[in-house]
């Protein structure tokens, strides 16, 4: 279940025969790209050698199961990690069991240096489960996409400035770029690393979740689920070591996690007009309405609301809050927002 989202992105690619003409073309294009990069130092294993190595693994798997029931697919993306090494993701389809097996091969020359396997097979029937598909980072951030599969722009540390999250398909690269002031994405950025030494292929399908009234990033690091939150003092994302993998596995992010994007809370200091609310989703309007209360310190039973407002410096929880603190402007704004919510 931990790898369903990655498998969803690969599902359509599993139906073609092993090493089709298209696969060979992809391999050749990959070799060309890596040859152009750093004078080819990252791709010393030839295409033909890679084919031979993977074919030998195909025979190995068929012997292990004593059945010739697998199709081998080479992933469209081949990644490389260190000079002289090649990283290849291969996929097996067990036709009778309707299962998928996936693993990486770290190749140097004509030898497999390391095999990074996944313990649990993936059921094709489970891959179609919409609940898991909708919880991945791609769908969470799709509305804030700048370049396809490259970067997203959003105020991740809630300081009033947009930030950039580097992103590749369903795998986060491990860096969020915090911009200096209100500048465009190509201006000089402060690169703040997520506090972990992780390889790109250990960053499968991360998602932003609410955990114990705190917003943060959850992902599988190759061994277990981990949770990172933004620490305002250290000014970087750090791991919450109290979060257990078993607990995190049961928590999934919402496609509406970033619904507050574009909301200008300063507008709540004056009477809202219809144009202030036009174009916002019902999820965003819900946040607009509850922000009126949050500005006076109200606490919330809904974990997503409490986790969101906890991220803002202007939010000061007040255990003695009552609606008597609402002004006439607040009440008028709540009424207008509710009218939009009913549309």
From TrEMBL:
Segments crossing the lipid bilayer: none
Q: Which residues form the YARHG domain?
A: 261-342
Superkingdom of origin organism: Bacteria
Alphabetically sorted, this entry's keywords are: Plasmid
**Protein name from the UniProt record:** YARHG domain-containing protein
* InterPro entries (UniProt xref): YARHG_dom (IPR025582), YARHG_sf (IPR038434)
**Keyword check for Metal-binding:** no
Please list which residues make up the signal peptide.
none
